[in-house]
């Protein structure tokens, strides 16, 4: 159960679905309520697929390219911390790939469930590297089951948050969403720094 809580908290902080709310609302302002609900489901499913594939197959990608777990932790820590700084500085949208080209592609309504919503806005390099590193340390059958359950629950939470995006945006307001995103950003920076520290300590012990 501890594995479930740790991974859920880490994933929720890195994915930051609350920070995605204003972006989701702006992308779907011309959608009907049913279309928003369907888009929320497709986005959550896409996020789950991306994360679960990263969790189980990422290790083989590392082996193929000869990347050590310490190198992954440092790279992932930098990416995760960078995402946290983006949240603190209010540059979340810019750093998640919402550019002019993506905005032009939004006319294809079904496509945005994968890009840009599922990836890179939610399941980005930070969450992918986090899962790969997590699997390296927690790969017993029980730990894998709890980790998979955690990924599933995070995806379900994302669905409910996106489905309620209009209500959340109205309740929190722009300033409330910014405040929540910055709190999550601080936690995300802490997670990234902890990954870097763990990698450095691992390297020192191996010397």
What does this structure look like?
This protein is mostly helical and 207 residues long. It has one domain (2-201). It is built from 10 helices and no strands. The protein has helices at residues 2-15, 17-27, 33-65, 69-89, 92-95, 100-105, 114-122, 125-137, 141-163, 165-206. Helix 3 (33-65) runs antiparallel to helix 9 and helix 4 runs antiparallel to helix 8. The two termini are 34 Å apart. The model is unreliable at 94-98 (pLDDT under 50).
Summarize the structure in short.
The protein has 207 residues and is mainly α.
Supply the key terms:
single chain, 207 residues, mainly alpha, 0% strand
Note the run of SSEs as H and E: HHHHHHHHHH
Mean pLDDT, to the nearest integer, reads: 83
Beta-strand fraction estimate:
under 5%
> From the alpha-carbon coordinates, what is the Rg to the nearest angstrom?
17 Å
Largest sheet, if any?
Answer: none
Kindly name the structural category: mainly alpha
- Tally the beta strands: 0
Number of helices: 10
Helical residue percent band: over 70%
Total domain modules: 1
What general outline do the C-alpha atoms trace? globular
């Amino acid at each position: 159960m501890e594995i479930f809580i740790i991974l859920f908290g880490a994933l929720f902080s890195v994915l930051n679905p609350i920070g995605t709310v204003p972006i989701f609302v702006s992308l779907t302002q011309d959608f009907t309520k049913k279309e928003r609900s369907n888009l929320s489901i497709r986005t959550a499913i896409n996020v789950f697929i991306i994360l679960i594939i990263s969790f189980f197959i990422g290790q083989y990608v590392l082996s193929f390219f000869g990347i050590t777990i310490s190198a992954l932790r440092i790279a992932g820590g930098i990416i995760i911390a960078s995402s946290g700084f983006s949240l603190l500085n209010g540059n979340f949208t810019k750093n998640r790939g919402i550019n002019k080209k993506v905005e032009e592609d939004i006319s294809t309504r079904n496509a945005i469930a994968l890009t840009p919503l599922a990836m890179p806005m939610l399941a980005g390099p930070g969450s992918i590297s986090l899962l790969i590193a997590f699997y390296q340390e927690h790969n017993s059958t029980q730990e894998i089951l709890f980790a998979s359950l955690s990924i599933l629950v995070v995806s379900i939470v994302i669905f409910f948050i996106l489905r309620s995006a209009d209500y959340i945006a109205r309740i929190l307001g722009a300033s409330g969403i910014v405040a929540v995103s910055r709190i999550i950003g601080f936690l995300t920076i802490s997670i990234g720094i902890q990954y870097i520290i763990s990698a450095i300590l691992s390297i020192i012990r191996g010397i």
